[in-house]
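Quick one, probably user error.
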C-alpha cells in the first residue's frame, strides 16, 4: 500500500521537475525540506488555525475534506502530510520497500519496553 503511494508521489515529483538525471536533491536537502514542512505545521498550529482548511472566495473554509473542491489545502494536518510526501518521495527514489520496512519497524517497536525505559518526551 505505501509502496504504491510512494511510487506515485515520486512520479509526480519527477514529472514536475523536482527529480531528473541531472537534478537529484541531496539527502541534506530532503531533510531540510522535511524540517520546512514541519515548521510550517507548527506555524499553522501556533496561529490556532484548523487542521484542514482552504480559502474560497476570500473566506477561510474549515470543513470536512469531502467538501474540498480543488482549492489549495492548508492547515497543520496538510503540512504534516507534506512531510510524509517528502519522506515517501525520497524512499521511492532509493527503491526502498516501504511496506516491508514499516512492518519491520512496527514489529520491533512492539517489543520495546514502556516508554523505552521511561524516557522523557
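Nope, works fine. Designed sequence:
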Amino acid at each position: 500500500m505505501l509502496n504504491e503511494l510512494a511510487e506515485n508521489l515520486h512520479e509526480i515529483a519527477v514529472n514536475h521537475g523536482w527529480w531528473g538525471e541531472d537534478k537529484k536533491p541531496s539527502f541534506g536537502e530532503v531533510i531540510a525540506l522535511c524540517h520546512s514542512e514541519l515548521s510550517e505545521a507548527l506555524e499553522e498550529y501556533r496561529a490556532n488555525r484548523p487542521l484542514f482548511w482552504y480559502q474560497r472566495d476570500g473566506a477561510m473554509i474549515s470543513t470536512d475534506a469531502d467538501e474540498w473542491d480543488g482549492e489549495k489545502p492548508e492547515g497543520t494536518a496538510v503540512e504534516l502530510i507534506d512531510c510524509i510526501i517528502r519522506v515517501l518521495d525520497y524512499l521511492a527514489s532509493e527503491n526502498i520497500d516501504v511496506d516491508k520496512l514499516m512492518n519491520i519497524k512496527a514489529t520491533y517497536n512492539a517489543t520495546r519496553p514502556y516508554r523505552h525505559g521511561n524516557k522523557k518526551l
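Strands lie at 54-56, 59-61.
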